[in-house]
Amino acid sequence: MRHISITAQIGIGMIGGALLGLAFGPKIAGVQLLGNIFLRLIQMVVVLLIFGAVIEALGSLKSDQLGRLGGKTAMWFLITTLIAAVLGLAIGYAVNPGSGIKLASVSTSATVAKAGTNFSQTVLDFFPTNIFDALAKGNVIQVIIFAILFGIVLNRANTDGKFNQVLRFVKQINQLTVKLVMLVMKLAPIGIAALMAWVTATSGIKVILPLLKFLTAFGLGSVAFLIVLFGFISWYAKVPLRGLVRGFSRIILVAFTTTSSAISLPIEMEDAESRLGVEKSISQLVLPLGMALNSNGLAMYLSLSCLTLTQLYGMSVSPMSMVKIVLLSVIACLGTVVVPGGGLVALTIVVPTLGLPLQRIAILAGIDWFSGMFRTVLNVVGDTTTAIAVASDEKLLNRDPYKVHADKMAPKHNL
Questions:
Q1: Which DSSP string do the residues of 351-373 spell out, in sequence order?
Q2: Distances (CA, A) of 380 to 196, 269, 392
Q3: Domains plus CATH for the chain?
Q4: Could you give the maximum distance between any two Cα atoms of the chain, in Å?
Q5: So where does this one cross the membrane (predicted)?
């Protein structure tokens, strides 16, 4: 009997769950509990996984690699995020998603928590006062800040091998954490099926219809971004395009169905190393950092959302406002919540700064789950392609997995 891959199982779970929700409606909404249990099991180890991975990655690097890798990673993050934000504006103007939507039929009640818009306070909140409090609350950006500093100190103090035992202990904890995550991922098909059943049971198809144009625009922008990014990375890293796309298949599916960069991270790290040939030292540094600091999908979502809101209310957007939208979209990505719903929190930072009433983001709340699918795919693909580019620069990219994938896809001829 042929074994069904976890990727296929997740796909079957997604489709089956959606059909169950549509067939039984609200009567089956209680199945959400299974999906929430799955999400919590993943979330309980994600912060520990990030914490240990960053420390191990920085602690294991040679001193001359430390600054070089950090600079390259930051450069790639900034470039891809800017491109995504600009592309969001371009797609918004091309599709004009804000036209033809009746606001009178949409509730204007607040549906998201109000977030502070003070930039200084936002930056200050990146830095923890108590690392144990940050770990307990799952504050990813604060955990990463501490892990970066601890990893740098460990790297510099361990030049003579005095702290090898500490580094070895961190590596062992990381190995056990990854094993735990992989165990939990066996429940992914059931958990994702339950979540999809709940979404369609409680909202039905009608949740998409009022803003179908917005979702279409976001989908088109996402596809365009992926085509450009895959094409460029295939050329830059000198890897076959087919093998590259195939290597990303499971990452994209998990990101699309869970709508969470944090939950996708374990699969992202595993496939980056085993299916995309990225050296472990690179993936453990770039991917956790990218999860908190590089949000290509969120940048595109924010710029497209702001433009859509101005179109809904017939407001003109000046060239300076366009620049402001792009810059705010990039800045708001720093430290944004990496679990489902984080996009709406980021909007509460950007929208008031543009002079738009905060209540106007309520119109996007009903489809946040669906727009989150596109956001998360672009986020994780952007992070992983950055890891591939950095690994290629450092001569730490194994191209054999791409050849294997290419061979599997090539037609076979009988001689």
A1: HHHTT--GGGGHHHHTTHHHHHH
A2: 21, 10, 18
A3: 6-409 (1.10.3860.10)
A4: 70
A5: 7-25, 37-61, 73-95, 134-155, 176-199, 211-236, 248-267, 287-313, 325-351
b or e along 125-162 (b: 16 or more beta carbons within 10 Å of the residue's beta carbon)?
Answer: eeebeebeebbeebbbbbbbbbbbebbbebbeebeeee
Q: Give me the pLDDT at residue 411, please.
A: 46
* Cα 114 versus chain centre, distance: 23
- For 150, the token pair is 């601890």
Residue partners of 57: CB distance under 8 A and separation at least 6: 151, 281, 282, 284, 285, 288
Q: How many angstroms separate the CA atoms of 105 and 101, rounded?
A: 9
Residue-wise pLDDT for 267-321, tens only, equals 898 999 999 999 988 888 888 878 766 789 888 998 898 888 887 767 777 677 7
Give the integer Cα–Cα distance in Å for 86 and 272: 27
Q: What is the pLDDT of residues 22-78, one digit of tens each?
A: 888 888 888 888 888 887 887 787 778 778 877 887 787 776 666 777 788 888 988
Cα–Cα distance, 331 to 206 (Å, whole number): 33
- pLDDT, one tens digit per residue, over 140-192 is 778 888 988 998 899 888 888 889 899 999 989 888 887 887 788 788 888 88
278 forms beta bridges with 397
For the full predicted model, state whether its pTM sits above 0.70: no
Distance CA(148)–CA(142), nearest Å, equals 10
Could you tell me which residue, 27 or 382, shows the higher pLDDT? 382
